[in-house]
Design goal:
21 strands, about 325 residues, globular, three-stranded mixed beta sheet, Thrombin, subunit H, 13-stranded mixed beta sheet, Phage tail protein beta-alpha-beta fold, 6 helices, alpha+beta
Length: about 325
């Protein structure tokens, strides 16, 4: 007889295993993993009919591992989903329940503080190492981006969180804070920031239930252009990428190389994401993560021909078992 697919999870609070406290009270959880600058979000719902559940204080750190305890058509084992800092606790009733919400950016709040800092003649990796260090975490910067030269850049009145997001846009990179790491890697990269090979995924109509394909209307721009300040002549000059009407970037860059990097990234972003695909998987795979490459087959010539990237993964666990919905965008 085939083993039933049985989901499992492991939760710890500040390093203490919560199995004895959580298992009899567990109602459900949801986990949203994103590729953009936002932190991942965890929501945990527990019974509290006896009013004896100890509530975690905001700032406490929850670690989550999620996956399958048994099953014949799943990969058995729990996948580490990282650390989440509690930022909200809500009590509701009846029935009496506690909902705990937490985010993956388990920092001390300083990363939201506005700062003014300037860097000159440096690299992307060095800047991110500086930012990570002052937040007490590590920076994991992909080798393709770490040595990118920056002539000059200012963090003027922006938080570290906003500034890193801007850098991600400037280099068309995944820029996010997860599990006490500042991660910076090219969108669609075949390897992680640490150099490990990212798995790819092939899906058919047999692998899921409901799906939705969307084709977004492209905007009027076929490229981008940016100005840079020529230190020799004292004049502004321009660089551009793409064809047709070009989006003009507002910032004036310190060098031609900086300006060209920004226009190339803007053009890549505008080319990507013209198509979107949402898919409810029949069997959740907790190894899935944003930025993985996906191929689809069995729909039609348009959908099947597109190279897809995972933009977000939403996982739920409750009375209906372990469920997952992924959002893809064209690469």
């Amino acid at each position: 007889m085939a083993d039933a697919n049985i989901a499992g999870l492991r939760l710890t609070l500040d390093g203490v295993d919560l199995a004895d406290k959580i298992n009899p009270r567990f109602v459900g959880l949801s986990l949203s993993e994103k590729r953009g600058g936002e932190a991942d979000e965890l929501s945990l719902t527990l019974h509290d009919a006896d009013g004896r559940l100890a509530l975690p204080e905001p700032g406490k750190v929850i670690s989550l591992a999620l996956g399958w305890k048994s099953g014949t058509d799943v990969t058995v084992g729990l996948v580490d989903k990282g650390r989440f800092t509690v930022d909200e606790v809500e009590l509701t009733g009846p029935p009496d329940q506690v909902q705990i919400r937490a985010r993956s950016a388990d920092l001390n709040g300083e990363y939201r503080k506005r700062r003014t800092t300037a860097w000159k003649n440096t690299t992307v990796g060095a800047i991110l190492q500086d930012i990570a260090s002052r937040n007490g975490i590590a920076a994991k910067v992909h080798p393709d981006l770490a040595d990118k030269a920056i002539t000059a850049i200012d963090q003027h009145g922006k938080s570290d969180m906003a500034f890193v997001k801007d850098l991600g846009s400037r280099y068309d990179a995944v820029a996010t804070w997860k599990d006490r790491n500042l991660i910076f890697m090219p969108v669609g990269s075949a390897t992680t920031a640490s150099g490990a090979t990212l798995r790819s995924l092939a899906l058919t109509k047999r692998d899921g239930w409901s799906w939705r394909f969307t084709r977004a209307q492209r905007d009027e721009y076929g490229g981008a252009e940016a100005a840079w300040h020529n230190q020799v002549t004292g004049k502004k000059e321009k660089v551009s990428t793409g064809s047709g009407k070009k989006k003009r970037l507002k910032r004036v860059y310190a060098s031609e190389a900086d300006a060209q990097q920004a226009t190339d990234a803007e053009a890549a972003k505008r080319k990507r994401g013209a198509f979107q695909f949402e898919y409810e998987l029949a069997t959740a795979d907790t190894r899935l993560q944003p930025n993985l490459r996906v191929t689809l087959s069995g729909w039609n010539t348009t959908i099947d021909a597109i190279t897809w990237l995972v933009a977000s993964v939403d996982t739920t666990m409750g009375s209906a078992g372990l469920k997952q919905r992924i959002t893809l965008e064209s690469a």
